[in-house]
């Protein structure tokens, strides 16, 4: 019949966290983001140690700052339901490691420089791979990013983490043809990336999610100076 392999402690924790969110009424909203300018900025910052993960975290954090409801969580106090608005914007990012999954956190991501975030992220990933992250370095996220683009995945939806209001699933960049009146034949080739936001529908509504993604796209396409 095959071998049975018991869960490790980390696998148990992941399983329990997934089960804890089963009763949450979640929904998903997707949007494509043009990546040409973002990729060019990354190439210019790469020699300084800046990573794509750090850039994504900063862009998401800046968008969240304009839409605080996305950084919130559902909470009951004394039996009364309400919204817990998190003052700090701490971006947790999923990292696959041997035997499981962990979410190192870039704290105060909207307030820090790209170089600082890049250095911090490399340090956190190193600790994650050696099992030396402190609880505060993986339990303090207020919003989560799951990026599977490096695995060739173009589109997916992520399960909402327990105690969180939202998680952003990021697919890989793809080339596509779009209309352009200034181009030869009226067409040009661009790079696009699809992102999907999963939200807790108890406190976050469809318009909230759509406006957040609109702001994120605007930052990544037109306002890259904000990422400095």
UniProtKB/TrEMBL annotation:
Residues 5-227 form the 2-oxoacid dehydrogenase acyltransferase catalytic domain. GO terms for cellular component: pyruvate dehydrogenase complex. Pfam families: 2-oxoacid_dh. Signal peptide: none annotated. It comes from the Eukaryota. One of its GO terms (biological process) is pyruvate decarboxylation to acetyl-CoA. One of its GO terms (molecular function) is dihydrolipoyllysine-residue acetyltransferase activity. This is 2-oxoacid dehydrogenase acyltransferase catalytic domain-containing protein. It comes from Thalassionema nitzschioides.
């Amino acid at each position: 019949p095959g071998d049975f392999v018991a869960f490790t402690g980390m696998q148990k924790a992941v399983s329990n966290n997934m089960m804890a969110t089963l009763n949450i009424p979640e929904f998903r909203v997707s949007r494509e983001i043009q990546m040409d300018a973002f990729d060019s900025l990354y190439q210019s910052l790469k020699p300084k140690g800046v990573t794509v993960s750090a850039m994504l975290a900063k862009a998401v954090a800046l968008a969240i700052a304009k839409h605080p409801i996305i950084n919130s969580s559902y909470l009951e106090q004394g039996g009364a339901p309400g919204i817990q608005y998190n003052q700090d914007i701490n971006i947790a990012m999923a990292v696959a490691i041997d035997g499981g999954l962990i979410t190192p956190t870039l704290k105060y991501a909207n307030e820090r420089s790209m170089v600082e975030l890049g250095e911090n992220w490399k340090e956190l990933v190193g600790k994650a791979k050696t099992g030396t992250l402190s609880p505060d370095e993986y339990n303090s996220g207020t919003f989560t990013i799951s990026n599977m683009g490096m695995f060739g995945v173009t589109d997916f939806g992520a399960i909402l983490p327990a105690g969180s209001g939202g998680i952003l699933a990021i697919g890989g960049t793809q080339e596509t043809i779009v209309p352009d009146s200034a181009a030869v034949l009226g067409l040009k080739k661009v790079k696009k990336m699809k992102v999907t936001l999963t939200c807790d529908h108890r406190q976050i509504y469809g318009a909230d999610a759509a406006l957040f993604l609109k702001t994120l796209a605007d930052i990544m396409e037109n306002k890259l100076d904000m990422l400095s």
